[in-house]
Design a protein that fits this description.
The protein contains eight helices and five strands. The protein is α+β, with helices and mostly antiparallel strands. The protein has two domains: 80 residues, no CATH class; 81 residues, Beta-lactamase Inhibitory Protein, Chain:B, domain 1 (2-Layer Sandwich), CATH 3.30.1450. The chain starts with a helix and ends with a strand.
C-alpha cells in the first residue's frame, strides 16, 4: 500500500508547497519523517521545517518541535507499516493519524466495552492505475476516481479495536 501513501503525499506536497523543489532535497529518511509527521504540523510548521537547509537542521527542528519522539517511539517495522498505510487492529491512535492523516469525521462512541471510544471515518479513492488515495477536502483527484470506499476505525482506549470497510461514501 505504500504506493497510495507516496502518491498522496506527492500530490499534497505539490498542492501545499506549489512545487516539489523543497521536498526534492529531502533524503529518503527525511521524507519518511515528513510524511509520517506532517499530520502534526500546520502549514506554517511545514514551511519552517522545509526552510532548514541541512538534514541536521531539519532533524533538530523536529526534536525542538517535539515531533522526533512521536516518530521514533515506534520500531522500524512499525514505521514502515505507517508509511505503507497498513493500519491494523491493535495500532495506537497516533499511528493511525500518521498513516492516514486526520479523519474525515471523528466522534465519541458510547456503549462499547472500552472506557473511552471514538469512531474515525476515512474516505478513500481508487484511481484508474489502482493507486489508493486517502481523500482530502478539495481533492482535485476525486473526479478521476474509479471507486470510493469508507474505512471506519473504532478506537478503544487509544488503540484500534476494529476496522470496517464500506463501499462508497
Amino acid at each position: 500500500m505504500r504506493s497510495w501513501r507516496a502518491t498522496s503525499a506527492v500530490l499534497l506536497g505539490l498542492l501545499v508547497l506549489g512545487g516539489g523543489s523543497k521536498l526534492d532535497r529531502l533524503t529518503p529518511v527525511e521524507r519518511d519523517h515528513f510524511d509520517g509527521l506532517r499530520v502534526w504540523m500546520d502549514k506554517k510548521q511545514e514551511k519552517a521545517f522545509l526552510k532548514n537547509k541541512t538534514e541536521e537542521e531539519r532533524n533538530q527542528w523536529l526534536k525542538d518541535a517535539g515531533l522526533w519522539e512521536r516518530w521514533y517511539k515506534f520500531d522500524e517495522g512499525m514505521r514502515d507499516q505507517i508509511l505503507g498505510g497498513e493500519v491494523a487492529t491493535g495500532w495506537p491512535y497516533d499511528a493511525v493519524y500518521m498513516a492516514w492523516g486526520k479523519p474525515h469525521e471523528r466522534k465519541k462512541m458510547i456503549g462499547r466495552s472500552a472506557s473511552r471510544s471514538e469512531l474515525l471515518t476515512y474516505r478513500f479513492e481508487i484511481m484508474e492505475d489502482g493507486a489508493v488515495l486517502v481523500w482530502a477536502p478539495g481533492s482535485k483527484a476525486t473526479y478521476k476516481a474509479v471507486g470510493k470506499y469508507t474505512m471506519l476505525v473504532y478506537i478503544d482506549d487509544d488503540k484500534v479495536g476494529e476496522l470496517e470497510r464500506r463501499d462508497g461514501w
